[in-house]
Design brief:
single chain, 298 residues, alpha+beta, Chitinase A, domain 3, 2 domains, two-stranded antiparallel sheet, 6 strands, 50% helix
Length: 298
């Protein structure tokens, strides 16, 4: 019911703002600093609204409408008095027991309560530091970081054999693959990766850094083929040739480490919270089913 009323007051709040023709406040205005239990308004039927209830109602409005309401609280409360009175008239006429109002109220009430319980479950009162650290240790791969060097050999089948802006011949895909496969063979026999990158890579940025590419994390926005290859490496190892739409890559793991727990504690905490909620929700989905009473529904 509160959801329906909140949506209604939003509409009325906007209408009131338009009819009142109030300019937007020059700077944010604030509510009076009153305890939540303080009575602030009374209505025709004797209902009394407290400061806490007023804050709750205003929380349903968008930022602009809320600011305008706070700037002129008597006008907002007048509008709420009208809304409240009409709602009470609807109850007196038992409209809450008639379709489609009955179903709308059921849907709104169920949705609001669902969201409230999910929010409660998703914000546990306390998660011990020990539990957070245990999760970190059990899922340490999530916090791995690999300092990588790279060699990139580009290709263009449409422009193959032409000369690029750098004066080099543009390779076709088979030519590029043959070249980088040869480089990999030399590296596997002991050739210096950085030297090979500086002399052969088509990636200008990493080539200027003796092949240094980046320190990669599992959550980085990189192609899956690169992610799976890089995070399978041990320090000093080189990937197989990795195809990408415009070229081939080789990656070498210069250093493999893990982000310290202290650095990622907040991130781990959020993950633990999310996984708790997902586990709880999955259990409900698996164990809660409607019993179909009529074959036609199937």
């Amino acid at each position: 019911m509160m959801k329906v009323l909140a949506l209604s007051v939003l509409c009325l709040g906007c209408a009131w703002a338009q009819t009142a023709a109030l300019p937007a406040p020059a700077k944010p205005v604030t509510l009076p600093d009153l305890p939540d239990k303080t009575p602030v308004a009374a209505f025709d039927d004797g209902t009394v609204m407290t400061m806490g209830e007023l804050k709750g109602l205003l929380g349903n409005l968008d930022v602009q409408a809320r600011q305008q309401a706070v700037a002129s609280l008597p006008g907002f409360l007048d509008q709420w008095a009208v809304l409240h009175k009409i709602a009470e008239m609807a109850l007196a006429d038992k409209l809450d027991q008639e379709s489609p109002t009955k179903e709308q109220l059921l849907f709104a009430r169920t949705t609001v309560l669902f969201n409230a319980e999910v929010q409660r479950q998703g914000n546990p009162g306390r998660i011990d530091n020990e539990e957070i650290e245990q999760f970190y240790n059990q899922h340490k791969a999530k916090y791995q970081q690999v300092k990588t060097d790279a060699i990139y050999v580009s290709f263009s089948n449409s422009a193959a054999s032409q000369v690029g802006a750098d004066g080099k011949k543009i390779l076709s895909e088979p030519e590029a693959k043959a070249k980088i496969t040869g480089l990999l063979g030399q590296i596997r026999k002991g050739a210096d990766f950085k030297k090979m990158a500086k002399e052969n890579s088509d990636d200008e940025i990493s080539r200027a850094k003796d092949g240094y590419f980046a320190t990669l994390n599992p959550t980085d926005n990189i192609p899956d083929a690169i992610r799976s290859a890089v995070f399978a490496l041990k320090a000093g190892e080189t990937t197989d040739v990795i195809w990408q739409p415009n070229g081939f890559y080789l990656f070498r793991a210069e250093e493999v480490s893990y982000k310290p727990f202290a650095e990622v504690r907040d991130q781990v905490y959020q993950t633990v919270k999310s996984e708790r909620l997902e586990t709880w929700m999955a259990g409900l989905h698996n164990n809660t089913k409607a019993k179909i009473l009529n074959p036609a529904i199937k």
